[in-house]
Amino acid sequence: MTPSLLYAFAGVALCSIGLFGFVRIRHLLRKLMAFNLIGSGVFLLMVGLAQRGGQPDPVPQALVLTGIVVAIAATALAVVLIRRYYHLSGQTTLAEPRAKRAKPPAPTANREGSPE
Amino acid sequence: MMRFLGVAIMVAICLAFAGGLALTVWQIAGTPAPVNLPHLLAENLDASGVDHPITAVLLNFRSYDTLLEIGVLVIAGIAGISMAKTTSLEDPDLRTSDSLLYALQRWFVPLMLVLAGYLLWAGSDRPGGAFQAGAVLAASGVMMRLGGIPMDFLRPGMLLRFGLALGFSVFLLVAVASALAGSAFLAYPEAFAKPLILIIEVVLTFSIAMVLLALFVSAPVNRTEEPEEGEAG
Amino acid sequence: MTLGLMAGLLFTPLAWAVLTLLVDFRKGRVVTWLGMAVQMLVSLGLWAVVASDGGFLYLLGGWQAPLGIELRVDGLAVTFVLLTAVVAAACGWHASIYLDPDKAWHRYFWPLFWFLWAGLNAVWLGGDLFNLYVGLELISLAAVGLVALGGQADALRAAIRYLMAALLGSLAYLLGVALIYGQFGTLSLAGVTALLNSAEVPAGLSFALVLMLLGLALKTALFPMHGWLPPAHGIAKSPVSALLSALVVKASFYIAARLWLDLGGHLGSYALAQLIGALGGIAVIWGSWLAFRQVKLKQVVAYSSVAQIGYLFLLFPLTWGVSDAISLQAQQGITLQVISHALAKAAMFLSAGNLIMSVGSNRVDALAGVSRFLPFSLFSFGLAGVSLMGLPPTGGFAAKWLLLQASLASGQWWWLGVLLAGGLLSAAYVFRVYQASFIDDTDIDHFFHPSRSLEVIPMILALLSLGLGLMAEPVLSVMSLPFEAGRGQ
């Protein structure tokens, strides 16, 4: 058991904790953090597993850098969407707003309906 | 009861997942990899134009990945500014009137700009590079924004879109130009590899910072009359 | 020659994306028309090159795998490239008329559209596991951006749900890639396959394959992970829905299929193959049933996608542990199913968009009387429906016929039930839409008339889907072209 392998196992733990959070938590920002936790776990596992022999391997490190940028882009986009969603609907989860369904559909509900 | 059952099932799934993954990792760790990529990389490092192996992988050997990755970042930026309302830029809520922040920012912003420059320059032979530098640059932009310094270029206008596209387009131009010069795509001519990679790094830093900053700015802010987060829904 | 074609496929879509980002909607539309013509020519060119000379490996940057990224340009890849060119050009053309140029956010449609196209091409040609991950993310984020465009609360809810599912799926895939890299030290799919074939199969890697397939199945919306698809495809603008249903879900399926065909023989198992097939079978029945029950027209079409995607997963049981001839037959059947579904579903969403535009409501029962006013769009919808049902001589029929033969030849007769029930149920939901549109007791005599070209585009796609059954032979002969290693550059 080399120290690198320890990182890989830490990655395993992070992935499963993140998975639990991602599925169970309904608040969108926390869900997003759970996604980032899984992501960190995957990156840790990728680097740790590849350099288990003790010798550093630059390729997975570069892959992880690419992966981090992709994850940041996705996270940032998700935050913008979530903030905007909260701004419009006042909701922090994806549950359908039941109270609002009783009213006649708002003009925005079927935007395709209006001839453009 | 149902809730407890749900949690219990999910815990069981996660434990099974962790167990399976750990077992796989353990089994893989027991056998050596048949391909020694680090060795192959070290052999070809001279031809790549940079001295740091990670930068060489990112900007030469696997530069197509990096090109697409910047594309992903630009997409996030585009989708972000398509949500933006111009008014949110003027929102006084976003400006903190914290005098400590204001004082700190006079020290930090120049320092962070220098740090970003250093990270960019360091990327060729030690840890650092375009993304790290861009992130620091964006962070200093966020700080300036919070301090209330007007940044008109962040309006969703021509200038912002140009900034978003700049790094990506230069990268793309180099990719295609290298092909027109006779070699394959993204195969830099060996004599120019170093300056080309440097140019790409500089414009990428700028664009990455722009994208991150634009995403920060375009997230709509809460108004005071709206419910606090957590109370709604 | 090849160099120019590869540039045309991989890099010019990115260039169009940048150009359209810089200009407004109307100029972006002109750039896009030009770009679509170029893409069409280039895709046809590459298809012709591969059809005459066979496939080849293309080394990006001149670096050989495992150091660099290699692209696999074979018959299947160019078939999908061409399909993408046809369907995306049709959707882009439709969108250029359908979208309102005066809404400020519509200008962002074009760059996202082109990034999506670039990502699709990257995935079809990709031969590197990590590069495929980046390509998938490019597609997902562009698709989410397109769904969220305009930013209404309902669209945002669908977009966020879609984004979450797509991100989780990508991470599961990436975790599998990390394990494979840890084992073999290479990311090239061809390299991994060669290592698996030459040496003893290491223990534990099945878990990696399962993870990757699970992630990709989530992104393809396989039952029971389909919950994100109908809201996202239903709420998006019609050209976007068409792109998403016809092409985007196919990208993740394509990777899953490639992984299965290359690695499944060593790392898969009979139980896994049957399980995936069974989920696909349930998806066919359940998705069709839900499609029948929907109130909104586009939800009908979206649930129909869930059902049609189910058929694709029959590839897994029908290619595992069978003879090469049967496996090839199943692969051909699935390829035809992908193509015919892409054409038919794009036609269906585009004509549904026209119908909704014309009656001003997205409900099925609001279609009453529309048959008198918009027979052309309704006819395209029906033609596409015929292909989904699998009636001769459509592409859907040819696909299901091949699958039927493959199931019988491999002794897995139980898939016949799925094929038959799926066809009947899809007939039910298509006829339900028809029935609604022929009710004549409405007093509304005012319908909005969309422009003629909006009606022509879905018709062309529906006719292509119909004619695919007759053209199946040349399409299949190129698709199954083997690929000659060693012919780089």
UniProtKB/TrEMBL annotation, chain A:
The chain crosses the membrane at residues 6-25, 32-50, 62-82. It is found in: Cell membrane. Pfam families: Oxidored_q2. Residues 93-116 are annotated as: Disordered. InterPro entries: CPA3_antiporter_subunitC, NUOK/Mnh_C1-like. It is a multi-pass membrane protein. Signal peptide: none annotated. It comes from the Bacteria. Keywords: Cell membrane, Membrane, Transmembrane, Transmembrane helix. Coiled coil: none annotated. One of its GO terms (cellular component) is plasma membrane. Belongs to the CPA3 antiporters (TC 2.A.63) subunit C family. This is Na+/H+ antiporter subunit C. It comes from Marinobacter halophilus.
UniProtKB/TrEMBL annotation, chain B:
One of its GO terms (cellular component) is plasma membrane. The chain crosses the membrane at residues 66-84, 104-123, 129-147, 159-184, 196-217. Keywords: Cell membrane, Membrane, Transmembrane, Transmembrane helix. Residues 104-210 form the Na+/H+ antiporter MnhB subunit-related protein domain. The keyword Lyase does not apply. Its main location: membrane. It is a multi-pass membrane protein. Belongs to the CPA3 antiporters (TC 2.A.63) subunit B family. This is Sodium:proton antiporter. It comes from Marinobacter halophilus. The lineage of its organism: Bacteria, Pseudomonadati, Pseudomonadota, Gammaproteobacteria, Pseudomonadales.
TrEMBL record, chain C:
Residues 127-421 form the NADH:quinone oxidoreductase/Mrp antiporter transmembrane domain. Coiled coil: none annotated. The chain crosses the membrane at residues 6-23, 30-50, 76-96, 108-126, 132-150, 162-181, 201-222, 242-261, 267-289, 301-322, 342-361, 373-393, 413-434, 454-472. One of its GO terms (cellular component) is plasma membrane. It is a multi-pass membrane protein. InterPro entries: CPA3_Na-H_Antiporter_D, NADH_UbQ_OxRdtase, ND/Mrp_TM. It comes from the Bacteria. It is found in: Cell membrane; Membrane. GO terms for biological process: ATP synthesis coupled electron transport. One of its GO terms (molecular function) is NADH dehydrogenase (ubiquinone) activity. The keyword Transmembrane applies. Keywords: Cell membrane, Membrane, Transmembrane, Transmembrane helix. Belongs to the CPA3 antiporters (TC 2.A.63) subunit D family. PANTHER family: NA(+)_H(+) ANTIPORTER SUBUNIT D1, NADH DEHYDROGENASE. This is Hydrogenase 4 subunit B. It comes from Marinobacter halophilus.
